[in-house]
Design brief:
The complex is a heterodimer of chains A (352) and B (444). Chain A is α/β, with parallel strands linked by helices. Chain A is 48% helix and 12% strand. Chain A has a 4-stranded parallel sheet with strand order 2-1-3-4, sandwiched between helices. A 4-stranded parallel sheet of chain A has the order 8-7-9-10, sandwiched between helices. A two-stranded antiparallel ribbon of chain A has the order 5-6. Chain B has 2 domains: 295 residues, Orthogonal Bundle (ABC transporter involved in vitamin B12 uptake, BtuC); 111 residues, no CATH class. Chain B is 78% helix and 0% strand. Classes of the chains: A alpha/beta (352), B mainly alpha (444).
Chain lengths: 352, 444
């Protein structure tokens, strides 16, 4: 009798767990993204209609992912796959092949290219991989600018609309909320209301925003007085010189006016060589460069050593969400990057 | 930034490495356990990697201690697996051990973010050595050097003639353990700096050269040290002047020097100099011809369609076309729809102007367009301005600008207040529209 009861209880528990498990996941779309920054954006746009998982953690090298069976299994069940779309993730096509999921192949409706419709920096004139790991379509680290985040969100929205048209209004309202939040966080609420996020972004993309804001006036005050958000926080960085390890920060630097003078890698993807490091050190001494910036997936010790030699401050940060403490979303990235850089320049200024 | 400033520390480190490794190399060659170094090095590296998983930073003292523990275990295994009258060569056990350690390191690294760390285990980071590293290495190596010097006869006997050592009652296994342990100590330090490959070369290359020339330990050491120092200096210089990674450059340069040295010795020692010279020349010719042939073959193959990984190119091309397709769809996010905008204006405003206006991307462009238009055609410009002021999506700053321009063109502001929203400005907008009507009547 007691035994029967136990068996029944166990059975009941199984049923309950099964219901919970299936109820939680069954009616949600499964979205798999490459970069953890895209995951943060997809969660915003997809809301409670989707579950999101990502492949590259914020403290991993996005260029290199060793294919693991679990990744293919994850992709096999995916409804939507979001990849950068340039040649950053050379491993992605073979992973999709492994997953045996025809719907998420590039060109199919379950595939989203996050970089679609974006102005890509550093597009080479001649296409060749002979010079190492040069990205032949230009700089693929698109998630380092909040403005690119808006385009990524639009691309993800387009993808979600295609596979789930019934909820497209829901996705669209999330998208618009996201775009507004980016504008508010980038330029401040007041200035966004005054000029419009679209216009501010367009000016910023052309690198003319700060000049524009200093020149134009509203009620006899320069518009720059109304600036808020990340752009205001990053004003001390405007025109400042840094050396970075890899070309990770092109879009970030472009938006906030940071001048990346040199890279520790002689060519993207090629580890530092003696002659190149010597020339980097010389450049840093000649131009009095006091701050270095590197993603924490590189060998931190190398950056610190060069910094020590020239008396610069190394700023080591995660490249994407999940890569360090307190960097949990797309928005957190910019808080942390700007914060650390501003502090480093303050320190460098007070030392000098 | 001079070569001296950058390369002094790596150079000193190399000298210390050459000193201790050449000595150990003569033992390794005698014992015929060439891969023991690779296996110990890899074990030390595995210790560092596993420690990293526990949260021990790779350049800390704790990490070093942890990797020494791993090395000690490996040393114990190697001394136990030396079996008298062996059926399986010990080299096989050691090789297998190396493969297992290397693979385990890769598996462990999966748990961390250390892809580059794995590469560093192989290639090392000679360029990044610091003074402290050199000081520590120098003191540890001298201690071990002293230990070996004190017991030199015993170590030499076991390496050279283990059977005799066994028979004379020496605890061979114990001394083997001490040998591998001290060896492992050295390796644990040197691998962090120089990497598995370079350490292996430091160990065997000078020793091979020395063995080719002499049988006596003292001569071997002198030859090995001289050769090691010279080759290392030149290798580092090459690495600097040609801007190549230091570790691999020195390794390859060692290979070239060994080949050249062996040829020289062959020529010097040959009984018939003439036939030796002929053989040397013909061998060199074959090598050169083969090299050229391989080069040409590669060039030829690269030009054929076989060289491209078609799948990958297809995938990338598909991604690109997808990107373009999505770009077109993005136009849906633009502010104005052409058909709606055309209905807002009367026939005074040409359709081409409306279309151009609708195609603009942001307020700067729009306002500049309105300004330009009102300079050339004031009637059209004023109509655009009024539309712009009555559109609730026009941001505050541009309403101010537009109102200034309107005042400029018409001499009045119709009571429009930019800070209020469009509904509150309804009356002002109505007055603007009236003004246009009366204005055009007047003109007629």
């Amino acid at each position: 009798m007691r035994r029967k009861k136990i068996i029944f209880t166990v059975f009941l528990w199984h049923v309950i767990l099964l219901i919970i498990a299936s109820g939680a996941a069954a009616d949600k779309l499964k979205v798999v993204v490459t970069n953890s920054a895209y995951a943060s954006i997809a969660e915003y746009v997809g809301g409670d209609k989707i579950t999101v998982s990502y492949i590259v953690r914020g403290n991993q090298d996005p260029h290199i992912v060793r294919p693991k069976p679990s990744l293919a299994v994850d992709l096999a069940k995916a409804d939507l796959f979001v990849a950068t779309g340039l040649d950053l993730e050379m491993w992605a096509p073979s992973l999709v092949d492994m997953s045996n999921n025809p719907d998420i192949r590039s060109g199919q409706k379950g595939f989203v290219s996050a970089s679609a419709g974006m102005d890509i920096l550093e597009q080479p004139v001649t296409i060749s991989r002979a010079e190492g790991d040069v990205h032949i379509y230009g700089n693929p680290h698109i998630h380092t600018s909040p403005l690119n985040g808006k385009t990524i969100a639009e691309n993800i929205y387009t993808g979600l609309k295609k596979i789930d048209p019934a909820n497209s209004d829901y996705y669209l309202s999330n998208l618009n909320r996201f775009i507004q939040e980016i504008d508010h966080r980038t330029f401040g609420v007041e200035l966004t209301k005054m000029i419009g996020g679209e216009t501010l972004s367009a000016l910023a993309r052309r690198g003319k925003l700060i000049d524009f804001l200093k020149k134009k006036q509203y009620k006899n005050r320069p518009l720059v007085d109304f600036l808020g958000g990340w752009m205001k926080k990053a004003l001390p960085l405007y025109g400042k010189k840094v050396v970075t390890y890899h070309k990770n920060w092109g879009y970030f630097a472009g938006l906030f006016g940071v001048n990346v003078v040199d890279y520790m890698e002689p060519k993207p993807g090629i580890p530092p060589t003696p002659g190149h490091i010597a020339s980097v050190i010389e450049t840093m001494r000649n131009q009095n460069i006091k701050v270095m910036l590197a993603a924490n997936y590189f060998d931190v010790g190398k950056v610190q050593q060069v910094a020590k030699r020239v008396g610069a401050i190394p700023v080591i940060v995660a490249l994407a969400p999940g890569g360090e403490k307190n960097m949990n979303s797309f928005f957190d990235q910019f808080d942390i990057w700007i914060d650390r850089l501003v502090k480093a320049f303050e320190k460098a200024g007070s030392d000098g | 930034m001079s070569i001296i400033e950058l390369m002094t520390v790596p150079f000193l480190e190399c000298l210390i490495l050459v000193a201790i490794h050449t000595y150990l190399g003569t033992h390794v060659l005698r014992r015929r356990v060439i891969f023991v170094d690779l296996a110990l090095a890899q074990t030390a590296a595995l210790g560092t990697t596993v420690g990293f998983v526990f949260g021990i930073m790779p350049d800390s003292l704790a990490s070093l201690i942890f990797s020494l523990v791993f090395t000690a275990i490996a040393a114990a295994i190697f001394s136990i697996t030396r079996i008298r009258g062996e059926r399986v060569p010990q080299e096989a056990v050691i090789g297998l051990f190396y493969a297992i350690m290397a693979s385990t390191a890769i598996l462990v690294v999966q748990k961390t973010n250390g892809a580059e760390h794995v590469e560093d285990i192989l290639v090392g980071s000679l360029l990044w050595v610091q003074w402290q590293d050199v000081a520590v290495a120098a003191s540890v190596y001298s201690f071990i050097g002293l230990f070996h010097f004190v017991f030199r006869e015993r170590f030499l006997l076991i390496s050279e003639n283990p059977e005799k050592a066994f028979n004379s009652g020496i605890a061979v296994r114990f001394w083997d353990f001490l040998f591998y342990l001290s060896f492992g100590f050295v390796i644990s330090f040197s691998v962090r700096v120089a990497g598995v490959l370079l350490v292996f070369v430091f160990l065997v290359a000078p020793a091979i050269m020395a063995f080719m020339i002499s049988d006596r330990l003292r001569d071997q050491l002198l030859i090995g040290w001289t050769m090691g120092t010279i080759v290392t200096v030149l290798g580092l210089y090459l690495s600097y002047s040609m801007d190549l990674p230091s570790g691999p450059t020195v390794v390859v340069f060692y290979g070239i020097v060994l080949a050249a040295g062996a040829s020289m010795l062959y020529l010097l020692r040959a009984k018939s100099k003439f036939s030796a010279l002929v053989r040397f020349a013909s061998t060199s010719a074959v090598i050169i011809v083969t090299a050229i042939a391989v080069f040409q073959f590669g060039l030829l193959l690269s030009r054929t369609g076989l060289a491209r990984s078609q799948e990958r190119i297809d995938a990338l091309a598909a991604m690109e076309s997808e990107a373009r397709a999505q770009e077109e769809k993005l136009n849906n996010f633009k502010r104005y729809r052409l058909s709606e905008l055309r209905e807002k204006f009367d026939e005074t405003v040409p359709i081409s102007t409306i279309d151009e206006f609708a195609g603009l991307h942001d307020e700067e462009e729009r306002f500049a367009f309105i300004q330009k238009t009102s300079d050339r055609k004031p009637l059209v410009g004023v109509r655009l301005l009024i539309y712009y002021l009555s559109d609730e999506e026009t941001p505050l700053f541009y309403r101010v600008e537009a109102l200034d321009l309107l005042r400029d063109k018409t001499g009045q502001d119709f009571g429009y207040i930019p800070e209020l929203d469009v509904r509150q400005n309804q009356e002002a907008i109505a007055r603007m529209r009236e003004h246009i009507l009366s204005d055009s009547k007047k003109r007629k």
